[in-house]
Amino acid sequence: MGLLDVILGRSKPVRPDLDQLFGLPSAAVTLQAGAGFTPTGLGSVCFASVEGGAFARLQQDVRALLDADAELERGGVPVEFSADGYGYTWLLARRPADDPAALVNDLHAVNTLLQEGGFGPQLLCSLMGFRDAGERSLVLVYLYKRGTFYPFAPAAGGGDKRDNALELQVRALLENDLRIEQDLARWFPVWGAPGL
């Protein structure tokens, strides 16, 4: 960082650290013990869609990698791609709910393939789903460009309302397990995200 950057208050962006995803299995244990939330076995990666042959081939490689695992370990349950109304593509991965480490490995592999394929700037976030005995949903969202996590919890009863109290409770609970995003303005809602 140069002197001009310091004077103008600019800072270097945080470099993505995909290894932060490997903190999710221990966070899952903490969430279960402290708040009664268990993994659903669902996780997803969100990225901006790009046109072109190279990106289409990379998408096929991602599908082939995770589908091969599905054939071997999950009885053939394929990964799913979907698009949202904002132009983002979502990849939904499934694993047994009692094996969050395998799901994290899938999410890490997808992010790594996209990053190494030159599509790191298109990565937005990854998430891992949880549910409690009362069927409340919660996801832990990893912001690729910030290298941080935040909880997102829709309020019970549907609609576009968040359970802010639960999100703050989870933030306090996981401070020692994950690098939590401190800027609450960056805790974007992920309504309708696959895996929620």
Features:
Alpha-Beta Plaits; 22% strand; 5 helices; six-stranded antiparallel sheet
Rg over alpha carbons? 17 Å
Q: For the terminal residues, how far apart are their CA atoms?
A: 39 Å
By CATH, the topology is Alpha-Beta Plaits
Instruction: Tell me which CATH architecture applies here.
Output: 2-Layer Sandwich
| Derived structural class | alpha+beta
Q: Count the domains.
A: 1
Identify the overall geometry: globular
**Number of DSSP helices?**
5
Residue share in helices? 25-40%
The parts where pLDDT drops under 50 for at least 5 residues are: none
Main sheet makeup = 6 strands, antiparallel
Give the helices and strands as they follow along the chain: HHEHEEHEEEH
Q: What is the typical, i.e. mean, pLDDT?
A: 85
Q: How would you portray this structure in words?
A:
- This protein has 196 residues and is an alpha+beta fold.
- The protein has a single domain, classed as 2-Layer Sandwich (Alpha-Beta Plaits), CATH 3.30.70.
- The protein contains five helices and six strands, in the order H-H-E-H-E-E-H-E-E-E-H.
- Strands 2-3-1-4-5-6 form a six-stranded antiparallel sheet.
- A hairpin with a 5-residue loop joins strand 4 (123-131) and strand 5.
- Helix 3 runs antiparallel to helix 4.
Topology of helices and strands:
Layout: H1 3-8, H2 24-35, E1 38-48, H3 53-73, E2 80-83, E3 88-94, H4 100-119, E4 123-131, E5 137-143, E6 148-152, H5 164-174
Structure in a nutshell:
By secondary structure, the chain is an alpha+beta fold.
